[in-house]
Design goal:
This protein is of the alpha/beta class and about 375 residues long. Helix content is about 40%, strand content about 25%. The protein has helices at about 15-35, 50-55, 110-120, 200-210, 220-230, 230-240, 250-260, 280-290, 305-320, 325-340, 345-350, 360-375; strands at about 5, 10-15, 40-45, 65-75, 80-85, 95-105, 125-135, 145-150, 155, 175, 190-195, 215, 270, 295-300, 355. The model is unreliable at about 75-85 and about 180-185 (pLDDT under 50).
Length: about 375
Amino acid sequence: MSIVQIKDKTFKTSIPEEEILKRVQVVADKINRDMAGKNPLFLAVLNGAFVFAADLMRRVTIPCEISFVKLASYQGVTSTGKVSEVLGINEDLTNRTVVIIEDIVDTGLTMKRMIETLGTRNPASIHICALLVKPDKLKVDLDIEYAAMEIPNDFIVGYGLDYDQQGRNLRDIYTLLKESSLSIDNMKNIVIFGAPGSGKGTQSDLIIEKYGLGHISTGDVLRSEIKKGSELGKTAASFIDKGQLIPDDLMVSILASVYDGFGKEHAGVIFDGFPRTIPQAEALKKMLEERGHQIAAMIELDVPEDELMSRLIKRGQESGRSDDNAETIKKRLDVYHSQTAPLIEWYKKEGIHHHIDGLGALDRIFGDIQKVIDNI
C-alpha cells in the first residue's frame, strides 16, 4: 500500500493504474462496438476528466471527434439555473451522437443539468461515459451506459481528480485515510439558505465537490424515502396524499435518519431546503445537539427580487416547469419573505449567519463561500 500526503490530508492507494487501464479498455471496447458508423462527438469535462479522456481516446478505434467543456451555471453575471458551457462547444450538435466523458458521477445532479442543456442543441442522442460512479450517492435517475468502475462514498484523488487542485498527476487513485475520530470543531455542517432562484443547488454542488460534504435536500430525501417504502416514507406519503404538510417532527425524524447514514465520522453535511421556519431551525439544532454536533455556518445567498423573478421565469421557459410562471413565482417569494426570511435574524443571534452577495459571477460567489467555510 502506498501512502501520499497532499497538503493536510493523507491518502492511500485504492485503485492502481494497471487496474484503471484495464477498466478503461473494457469501456473503450464497448464504445467501439456500440458507436461503429456513428462518428460520435466526445465532450470531456474539465478539469477532472482530462486524464481519463486521453487514455480512453487512445483506445477508441472508430472515427470520432473530441472537444472539451467546463461547467458553470452562469452566463455573464446572471444565473440561468442550469449548467452551461463556459469553455465553448463550437461544434454543431444537431443530429450528432454525443458522449459525455466525466471523471466521477456522485449525486448526478450536475450531469442531469448538463444533459438538459445539451438537449436544447438537438443531438441525435446523448450518452454518459464515467470513470467512476458512486451509486450510493446518486440522487437522480441516470442511464450511465459506459462506467469504468463503481466505488463507495469515499473522497479520492489521482488520475485527474484533485484535492484543492493538487494530486491530479498521480498515476493511481487514492482514498482519503480517515482519522480515528473527528473533532466537532472540524465538522462543517452548513445550512445553505436563500430564496427560490438564489443558486442554492448550484453552490451546494460546488461545495460538495470541493469539501467532500454530504448533501441533504428535503425534496430529494422525501422522494427517496417514499420510493424505498420505509416506515418514515410511508408516513410522509400519507400526509402528502391528503394534500397536507408534513409535520416538523416527522420531517426532522426523516432528516435524522439520513444524517445518521453518513456515520459518526463525516466531514459535514449541507442542509438544502431545510429549515424553512424558526421552529424547524430549533428542531434541527436539538437533533444535532443530541448527537454532539452543531450547525457550523448558515450561508445566505442574497439576490434582488427582480433578478430572482428573471431567473425563475427564464428557467421555466427553458425547462417547461409549469410552476415557474410569474404568478406562482410571486407567491413563492411572498411565502419566503413571510415565513422563511425571519430565519436570518434567528441565525444572526446564533452567531453563525454569513451573508453572501448572490448576484454576479459564479467564481466570485463561490470564492466568497470558500472564505466562510475555510474559516469555520
